[in-house]
């Protein structure tokens, strides 16, 4: 509560005397904004909107969860002026449904500065059939490859470099095979998630869907066999720890963050890894490079995501007011003030230089993500059993109870049965 009050006072002091800003017009009346709930909007943006537009009353239309299709139907029913979208594919589906007003015209008219925003995020938002902007995202997420510089120095192993391939990463992982008590790589995620991370690098997903929503499992068989073999070999040689196998060296290790505590040489993740590293006492010198890439598209990071996107409802009667609020939430002042209290990745790049003395430069190096992973929108009652089934098959493979080929066959056959039983349209 004390920190929240300090933050609110900081907003007041920094905004005092400069409201309305040069970038916005004074507005009043009532505006409806789609967001998670009142408290979350107030925590994230409310202070900025209220200080910039003291005469404006806003009402939060609660985001009711569910699939994107359900959300589109909900927005048609509730008709909020500002639409919040949870991820990039959802944004694209809103565009395809004709629900969003384009904002390039407004940006040009108001001379609204987007040049200081992460160009990769802007390009991603413009990557639609019309090649226009229909929304802006004040923050983004990305992943990088972290490594323990001390372990690489001690065992005279070449340090990771930017734009490595996953083949190169697994080759590096194997060099720690004879290092007692240390994994070459550990993941805070499950085996399913790690395999999906590798697949997405090459535009592959365990469950893939096209624009017709026809779903396939492990579509590119030879590709997935190669990934399964790499991961399985690394696990069986005690070079790789995923969440399910973290107790291979010592059961007590499963209770700890392996990388942050110096028990693994590499991991992948976002800025949360830096926080865990700091919380564990900075036990080693931290290194950081870009996430592994597809050599066919070396400047692209699939993990670069705009996951908080705001757009204008094309059916709104208050488009100008909605635009003014979106400008504030994506503005320089918001990023400048917020970044002093919450260290996340801001689209206004000037305000995401470092976290606790650790440079965030690798998060910004790969500037493109033109891939589109069509959302399968699987309901929880289908997606969860599928996920658990895959984990079980992977664990059987890791335990050497079944071959890679057998695991892949089981995942396809059992997966299709689960999806069909849930009414999912299979190709």
From TrEMBL:
It holds the Pfam family SBP_bac_8. Gene3D superfamilies: Periplasmic binding protein-like II (3.40.190.10). It comes from Fontibacillus solani. Residues 1-24 form the signal peptide. Transmembrane segments: none annotated. Keywords: Signal, Sugar transport, Transport. InterPro entries: Bact_solute-bd_prot1, SBP. The lineage of its organism: Bacteria, Bacillati, Bacillota, Bacilli, Bacillales. Coiled coil: none annotated. This is Multiple sugar transport system substrate-binding protein.
């Amino acid at each position: 509560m004390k920190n929240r009050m300090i933050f609110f006072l900081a907003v007041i002091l920094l905004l005092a005397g400069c409201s309305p800003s040069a970038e916005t017009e004074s507005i009043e009346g009532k505006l409806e904004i789609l967001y998670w709930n009142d408290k979350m909007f107030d925590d994230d943006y409310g202070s900025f909107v209220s200080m910039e537009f003291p005469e404006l009353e806003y009402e939060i239309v609660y985001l009711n969860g569910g699939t994107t299709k359900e959300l589109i139907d909900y927005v048609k029913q509730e008709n909020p002026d500002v639409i919040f979208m949870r991820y990039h594919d959802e944004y694209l589906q809103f565009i395809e449904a004709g629900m969003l007003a384009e904002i390039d015209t407004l940006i040009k008219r108001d001379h609204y500065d987007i040049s200081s925003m992460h160009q990769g995020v802007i390009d991603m938002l413009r990557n639609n059939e019309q090649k226009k902007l229909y929304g802006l995202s004040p923050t983004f997420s990305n992943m990088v490859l972290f490594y323990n510089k001390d372990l690489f120095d001690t065992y005279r192993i070449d340090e990771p470099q930017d734009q490595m391939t996953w083949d190169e990463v697994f080759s590096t992982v194997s060099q720690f095979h004879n290092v007692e008590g240390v994994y070459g790589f550990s993941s805070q995620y499950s085996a399913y998630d790690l395999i999906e991370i590798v697949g997405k690098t090459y535009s592959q997903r365990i469950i893939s869907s096209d624009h017709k929503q026809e779903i396939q499992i492990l579509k590119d068989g030879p590709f997935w066999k190669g990934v399964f073999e790499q991961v399985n070999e690394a696990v069986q040689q005690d070079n790789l720890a995923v969440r399910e196998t973290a107790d291979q060296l010592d059961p007590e290790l499963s209770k700890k963050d392996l990388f942050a505590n110096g028990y693994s040489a590499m991991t992948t993740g976002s800025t949360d890894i830096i926080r865990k590293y700091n919380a564990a006492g900075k036990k080693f010198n931290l290194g950081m490079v870009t996430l592994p890439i597809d050599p066919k598209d070396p400047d692209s990071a699939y993990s670069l995501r705009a996951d908080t996107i705001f757009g204008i409802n094309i059916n709104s009667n208050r488009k100008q007011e909605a635009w003014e609020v979106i400008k504030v939430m994506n503005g320089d002042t918001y990023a400048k003030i917020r970044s002093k209290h919450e260290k996340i990745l801001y689209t206004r790049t000037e305000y995401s230089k470092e976290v606790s003395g650790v440079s965030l430069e690798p998060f910004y190096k790969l500037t493109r993500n033109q891939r589109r992973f069509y959302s399968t929108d699987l309901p929880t009652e289908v997606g969860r059993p599928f996920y658990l089934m895959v984990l079980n098959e992977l664990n059987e493979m890791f335990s050497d109870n079944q071959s890679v080929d057998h695991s892949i066959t089981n995942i396809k056959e059992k997966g299709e049965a689960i999806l069909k039983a849930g009414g999912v349209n299979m190709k």
